[in-house]
Amino acid sequence: MEVKRIPVILDGDPGHDDAIAWMLAQASPLLDIRAVTSACGNQTIEKTTYNALRICTLLGITAPVAKGRPAPLLEKPMNAPSVHGQSGLDGPVLPEPAMDLSELPAVELMARVLRESSEPVTLVVTGPQTNAAALLLAHPELKEKIARISIMGGGISHGNWTPAAEFNILADPEAADIVFRSGIPVIMSGLDVTEQALIFPKDFERIRAVGNRVARIVADWLEFFYEFHRNIGYAGAPLHDPVAVVSLIRPDLLQTKPMCVEIETRGEYCRGATVGHDRKRANALVNLGIDRDGFADLLVEAVKTYGEDER
Ligand code: BDR
Ligand code: CA
Questions:
Q1: Comparing C-alpha atoms, which of 32, 28, 104, 22 is closest to residue 66?
Q2: Model's pTM, two decimal places?
Q3: Does 254 contact ligand 1 (Cβ within 6 A)?
Q4: Cβ-count burial of 238 within 10 angstroms (0-12 exposed, 13-18 middle, 19+ buried)?
Q5: Which of 4, 37, 32, 35 is nearest to 18 (CA)?
Q6: Smallest Cα–Cα separation from 168: which of 48, 30, 289?
Q7: From ligand 2's centre to the CA of 113, what distance in Å?
Q8: Is 192 in the pocket of ligand 1 (CB under 6 A)?
Q9: What's the Rg (C-alpha) of the chain?
């Protein structure tokens, strides 16, 4: 029986964990990638866009790729070279882009995909939510065409870039505020769950042993990404962004709770915090736990779907 695939737009700031999230998405027979859009976050928009093109070339993603907005809605860009390196995706050598960038900016490509789709499309947002918010501001008439927004961002119990705020939300809190208030169902994979999505060195080796080019590159990405985290006390690489894809393809691996999540946009100490509670109607399904071993197995199975050079 033919499986009905979920149409998705992948929007991220790759980034090692964004790249692995896209690997998982491309490997899944449940997802139909309609567009890929870059966000300013881990690195400048020029660098994340170049990385997006290289990743799509590596993975055999043929959907159009468009460049996102160069800066958050209000603030100056905030980048994370300490985590992802100067290129935003340091580590293994990647193929040069084999496709051209779309002539449309990300928001207009997203709008075109939504307009042309006969069914609502899911956005998978693994960087700051600038493009998604700009889309909602520029094309409110297309809101009905967005089925869900599955984001990696925030943390109910803590932050990582500040005690209260996680990087993707802190980089553009106004954008996150627009997304969470939009009325569109949000699936939130914050630090509560993504810091449990730990991939250990023994898992890197299982992935590498699969033996194809994507497997080797994913193992190298994991090693690079882990180095930063090892130095600050993690026992493995916290694969934040892939959890936003797991939410769509293997929700059985996750423990969730519906919550009202509000974004702190003003506080001196808490700007960018995701305040989760039950005093108002829930606007998000918040992932709070993950079957770690099941997640590691899912990654190993995903890399097996790739051939020696490409999919
Ligand atoms: C998030 O920040 C980025 O560095 C990662 O790609 C992930 O999206 C984790 O806080
Ligand atoms: Ca990211």
A1: 104
A2: 0.97
A3: no
A4: buried
A5: 37
A6: 48
A7: 22
A8: no
A9: 18
From the CB of 166, is ligand 1 less than 6 Å away? yes
Is 241 near ligand 1, meaning CB less than 6 Å away? yes
CA distance linking residue 133 with residue 178, whole number of Å? 6
From first CA to last CA, the distance across the chain in angstroms is 22
b/e per residue, 173-184, with b = 16+ CB within 10 A?
Answer: bbbbbbbbebeb
Nearest residue CA, atom 10 of ligand 1? 167
Q: Which CATH code is given to the segment(s) 6-304?
A: 3.90.245.10
- Active-site positions? 240
Determine the residue of 17, 191, 196 to mutate for testing ligand 1's pocket, defined as the one with the most ligand atoms within 8 A of the Cβ atom. 17
Per the listing, tokens 């193992």 go with: 219
The answer, yes or no, to whether any atom of ligand 1 lies below 6 A from the CB of 43, is: no
Are the C-beta atoms of 124 and 9 separated by less than 8 Å? yes
**Per-residue pLDDT reduced to its tens digit, 184-241:** 999 999 999 999 999 999 999 999 999 999 999 999 999 999 999 999 999 999 999 9
Residue 252, both tokens: 């059985």
Residues facing residue 276 across a β-bridge: 261
- Phi, psi angle pair for 129, to nearest 5°: -90, 25
* Test site for ligand 1: of 83, 158, 169, most ligand atoms within 8 A of the Cβ: 83
For residue 271, give both structure tokens: 């700007």
Q: What is the pLDDT of residue 309?
A: 59
